[in-house]
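Consider today's protein:

***
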Amino acid sequence: MNTQAKQHTTGRHVSVTQKMTLWLLLTSLLTIALCMWGEGYLSHSVQNMQQPLDSLAASIQSDDWQRADKQWQELNADWQRTRRCWLGLNSHQDVANIDTAMLSLGAFLQRRQSEDAYNQLQLLRYFAQAPVEANTLSWSTIF
């Protein structure tokens, strides 16, 4: 009875329903914020890949293999850093597709096979862009 009097006089009694509602609201907001950050990170990382991919395509088309090898090594190093976050945000198959395309591109560059290297580079662009488009918040991805 004494505890009831204390709760009544302080006016700070919060019901279990109110606590659960607050907890659900907070976790929902955090989840939405994490999803928005993840979508932004994926989009930003793909945009950062576009310029090096464009430069690499130009090197392949001009048969500048030494420059293409160096650009691929830099691109691959950047991808290896980015890949860790992608594993947490995407399907592992999406990451595996990009890994496979990167390795195949490197092999074609070593063999100086310009047509195959260029085609693999375009496939790499597709594999990088596809998860971003699939994860973009829109009516088609919600339903």
